[in-house]
Predict the structure.
Amino acid sequence: MAIDSSDLSEPAPSWFTPKRLLVVFCVINMVNYVDRGAIASNGVNGSPRSCTESGVCSDGSGIQGDFDLNNFRDGVISSAFMVGLLVASPIFASLAKSINPFRLIGVGLSVWTLAAAGCGLSVDFWSITFCRMFVGVGEASFISLAAPFIDDNAPVAQRTAWLGIFYMCIPTGIAVGYVYGGVVGGSVGWRYAFFGEAILMLPFAILGFAMKPLQMKGMSHDKKVYGSLDEEVIEHSSKEHSSYGSFASNQLSRFWQDIKALLLEKIYVINVLGYIAYNFVIGAYSYWGPKAGYSIYQMNNADILFGGITIVGGIVGTLGGSIILDRMNSTIPNAFKLLSTATFFGAIFCFSAFCFSNLYIYLVLFLIGEILVFATQGPVNFVCLHTVKPSLRPLSMAMSTVSIHVFGDVPSSPLVGLLQDKVDNWRISALILTSVFFLAAGIWFIGIFLDSVDRYDEGSEHAGSVIEQPDVMPLLENKPATASP
């Protein structure tokens, strides 16, 4: 039977040019982490109820005051998103092989928007914890799929720099969240901070469904990419499976095979182990930083000061580390050299900062330390993307994200809260926490000596499914030379 050539024609170019794609993903990432900073800010998180020895009691403020939370329960709220992230990340990453990833991002951002609004409507500890879990579901769809899209379409000589720009939005978003939460929470109430986040994310959730979907390197679809999520599922099921049950079974089997493939990549495992130790510290810094700064140095404007340090350190460090790796030649061994060196010296400066009682000495040393530790963001994700074949990149990012949260910032926030409840000294708690940076540097140092292969250009699991990539972004435009920025 003859095949109509029109069925095989290339789809019309998406509205997205590579630069537009980067900008949109950066804004989404920024809003996602503004939420992280806002919930940790003194304006939103607030202070617990307390009573003096003379019997005078305070109602507290923010989430802690309204829901009468101790530090441990308060830390649990900051980590609750991990439940949704843990469950949803592997699911979204696996479905990306059969359903267009851009539509999956639209689904996830819709869930995120509803969950953020739900946080503003919460009435007690359990209701806000439940909503924070679904915030994690929304993040799962985006965080594992955005980086492969960016890596696909960045100029070859600037791949790490483009990833650095994207990951720069993490510390910047957290820092903006401190200020945003402090201002909004302090002026109109903590609930309105969550409502504002939901309004900011809503247009991007709609965009995920409204725009023409995009293809990802290494992903194979049986037919043209559809604009409807339901159409994609039905088409895939009708061609390869007899029922939704067999479809789910096939997805689960493929998922476990992919997990085994990731665990056999020694470089990937070492990279993620170092990232876990690193994120253990960063996660606790981001949540407890304003409170610790207020307690140790009597910062009346702790949200703004700590936010400012994080913005400067995040932008300079993330961009600087990424550009340096590109200049060194973006290879996996060079990435590990940069990771271990920057983290080691960053740990020295951050540890030293907390040893001084003078506020200004602390600010200078801690800023230098932040610049150095944030220099890791581009290189660590470059390793995650380039140690696995293209079809495994969404899952590699998903499992990296799950791992650094499950074993990193999720336990660190309540554990540091528990430690502080015991020692009642924020300086000691901060010094113990910061020492974990040295562990991260040591693990990444091991990676320098392991044999490594950049697998970016390896074939996918389906023959002929990988699209050859010229020096500039081929997946978004048929004629990239004429694309408008």
Remarks:
- Strands lie at 50-51, 57-58.
- Residues 52 and 199 are 40 Å apart (CA to CA).
